[in-house]
Input
Amino acid sequence: MESKEPETFEDAELKAAIRRAWRGDSAPPELIERIRSAAAESGSAPNRFVGPLRPGGWRMAMAIAAVMLLGICLVGYRMSRVAPSAPAVAAVLPESLASELVATHDMCCGAPDHHMPGLPRKDFDLIASVLTRRLGWPVLAGSLGDDWTFKGASICPVGPNHSAHLVFKHDNANVSIFSLPASVLSGQAENVSYEQVEAGHPIASFTEHGGLFCVVGSSSDGSLTLGAVSAIRQELRPRLETPAVSMRLTVALQ
Amino acid sequence: MKLSQAQFENLAMEQMDMLYRTARRFTRDSDRACDLVQETYLRALRARATFDLQAHGIRPWLVRIMRNLHLSRAERESRQPRAIETEALDTWSAASDGKASSRDIFQNMDEELVRALQELPEDYQAVLLLWAVEDFSYKEIAEAVEVPIGTVMSRLHRARQRLLESLKDFGDERRLIRE
Output
């Protein structure tokens, strides 16, 4: 069939008509701005600090410096509160951190739209990719299934830290997925699971790839149990092992 | 030929409108098109070291990244790809065998044409766009969508045939009214 095709294709009328139909499409200004920002920030990767920083590159440098300073301060703070003999691996998160997660969860679940402007809404891989790039540590993002409505993703404060924060709603229940740097924990260790209930909120967490990922739930009738949020954690956890996430981690580590 | 960071970014950024138009054809949705363009640029910036201007040219290279991203997403969303290569060329014959020509059909029918274009499979739309609006050469189109040049020709011919078929009835009505 292919061999019967002519070797050229010319149709001036068709070409002119298609140009009239499609030529007007152009990239929206907000998209152009987003991409220019991403390009500027990508210029701050270590192997690219050869020449002077381009406009926009300073923002990433400042962010990295701020995160490092925050991490050092936090580790110092935690070490001052935890006895040197305390075990590095604990079954529960520090109470202060759990309280901060609950406070942010309750605050954000009340918002009508929790989505950060400019962040993709429909593609969880892309959401994770953009937030990973923005924050500099791995971000866990995924669907909880058709029963849950995605209320949005954003970067939210958790005590003195920042976290990627996704919110889902189902009837009278809410679920948050937080992604923090594992450095918020003293004596951080990889592949540690934590489970607890804080102020009536079940919390299931784990550390992996240098990140601390916390699933926090709440429900007015108490139907969302610790077992339920643990199941959500188990369902989402493999998303950190996908090729897309591996690529994000590589980018984050650059 | 390897480009500097600044050269590469300047070259790539100039293609934003072209990529957005192409993404609109692939996704048929402006929001999804924006997401696709953004992810394409992120991928392209990461893969800058692999880009060779002489070997590919920036435009087919960028479109190829976008198309592969789009196909990966489509696969993830369990959408079945369209089997356009096996379609028979003779699904339409009346317009080309009859008296109607491109000049008769395509002039002064822009609204109908937009609708007919939107009904084409996305790969047909992409090839038509790259050929008509973006002025890609056949070789560039072939590199961008990763098919032989003969397949590019096939898609152009079949796309035109489908458009003529869609627009034929409308054209007939117009002639009847005139008569």
Notes: Confidence is low (pLDDT under 50) at residues 78-100 of chain B.
